[in-house]
Each structure stands twice: as structure tokens, then as C-alpha cells.
């Protein structure tokens, strides 16, 4: 039913101008039907996906066709008002990749040193007594970041804040004030240096971390913060902690594609593969160029198969005692309340590992994704620093201290 329905929608809307306000037109009713049909279509796709393990190639193709139907419907909803507003502000795939490559090419230890020489040396942040320190949980979406934050939030010394957008907003505003795209922020680094104390105070105020509290740390789980670790390093230095969630990029790609997020890059397997590669390369770049910023890599595969061992690595990294209550995260009545994404429902359930290696059931359908990843990319899913997904190997090991894209369509 859904294939014919989506095709009918596409044909009916084809003559209309992109972005046209459809309120009051017959086509608007079709789009409202599309929103109402999305949960039913997702349920059908889930049923088909459950049959893939035993159904072979035909079952895999049927399931994948259903997923593609969701993508087509989501793309339609993004093109026309009143639904287009849900997609406004999302960068194109090309713009996102340009940003990731631009940061890697322009912000380095040397460029930061030059900015300090001309713009002023920022004073290191001295944590006031009783104030918690920030832990930035970053990585590709669907890499286990929501799960990890829910686990850590059960610890008495760690407060989970969910997906905080403050850091990204700061960079956008700094760039906009200078008349720049955020990808070109490196050109104004000297001018940012004198602003760091005010930016730090504004961030801490926005997240409510200006008063003493029992917790030693708070978590900021906005996945996109991996782009702005240069600013984290400047604002907080080695008083911040960064946890990079890693997972087999083929499983990540499949999971992203199945969710039909509003971000444009998530509608193309090739684009998903390109962004996954760029994310891993940028993280390797930050490890080389931000030596004072403590970074720990946490494997999704290890977290769901040997959770105690992986969580002990995290608590050792943070300098707090291990707490077994982290393993019972799903019993917390507030589980999932910190995030508005598909993972929110999953963290209300006990741990499961059935998603590991699921990409193999769809290997034929994921050809465009896999083609963007170098051979052996899946071997990066480990507790050690994953290699960048490029031809040049980089020795990037987990560092110890010196002592979470809007979910899909919802009603």
C-alpha cells in the first residue's frame, strides 16, 4: 500500500513550486495524510526488518524498499509548507562536508598558537570549588551516545543534561556577527581570544552550572559538538572531558538511514558514508592538534556486550568510583527524557546486542555506503582510539586526564 501511496504523493506534488505554502490547497491534505501515515509505515518496516534474518535476500530487499519509502515520504514533507519549517536550518550534505573538511584544514595547534600571539593568551579556567566540570559526549548519531549518557546519569557524581545546543549556537553567532559561514571561523580566531571568559560564563550559565552542586560532572550530549572541540579546548582546557562514541560505521549508516532524520545527508547512503569518514578523520585531527584536551573513545560494541568493563574505563577516565547502578539505567523512570531522538525509547529497555553486525543482512543494499568507507573500516569499533577512515593511518590512542540531529517526523 505504501509504495503506491508515496508514488501518488510524489506525482500530485510534482507540479507545485518548492517551498510553496499548501495550506488551503488539496495537496495539503495529502501531506497531512503523509504525516499520519508515517507511524504506520515505520511499523510495517519494523515488521519486515524482523524477518530479514531468516528470509534471505528477498526479505532484505523488501525491508530496504520499505525504508526507502520512509525516506521518500520524509523528503516530500521537507519540501513544502507547513512542514518545511521542520527541515529549515539543516545544512545540505555538501555544506556539512565542507564544514568538516574546512575545520580540519584550518584549525590546528599552530593556528591556535598564532591566534593567541595576536589576540591574547587566554587564562586557563580554574574550576571554582563545588562547580561541576563538563563532559562532552560526541560522535556520529546512532553510535551509542544516548545509551552512554543514560548509564552515566545513574552515577551520583554525574548529572546528564542531554542534547545541549549552546556550543553550536555560540559558533554560529560568532560567525554570523563577523559575516562568515561557521566553516570559516578560523579566520577570526584572534578576535575570539579576548571573548573566551565571557563565552565560558555564558555557556556555564546556560547549562545551570554556576552554583555548587553534589555532582562533579555534567554531560553535554550534543553529537555535533565533535566539530567544535577546538572551542571546548579553548574554553575549558584539561578541565573538560571528551568521550567519543564509536561504532562500526556500517551499522551506524544502516541505523541512520532507517530513521529518516530531517538532516539532508541522512537520506543518501553515499552521503552518510562520506560524513562518517569525515567525522572520524576530524576526531583524529583533534587528537593531534589539541594535545591538552583529554579524550576517551568508547566502543558501542564493548558497551553492550561487556558493559561493566567499558563503564569502568569511563569512570577511571573521570576519576570517580565505579557504581553498579549504571547497569540498571533502564529502571530509572526518567530514562530517555534527556533526548528527543529514536534512542530515547531504546534506553527504556535492558541492554541488548542484537544490533551488532546487522549491516551484514543488508550488505547488498548498503553498497553505496560501504563504497565510501575504506577496507577494514569496521575494525575501528574498539575501546582504543579508532583509526581515521582515510588512507593515511594516524596513531591516535585514548588519552587520559593529567590526574549526544532532531529526530524524524513526529506529530
UniProtKB/TrEMBL annotation:
MF term (GO), any: protein-tyrosine sulfotransferase activity
Sorted UniProt keywords: Signal, Transferase
EC top class named in words: transferase
Signal peptide interval: 1-19
Region (Disordered): 377-411
Keyword Protein biosynthesis: no
Similarity-based family: Belongs to the protein sulfotransferase family.
Protein's name in the database: protein-tyrosine sulfotransferase
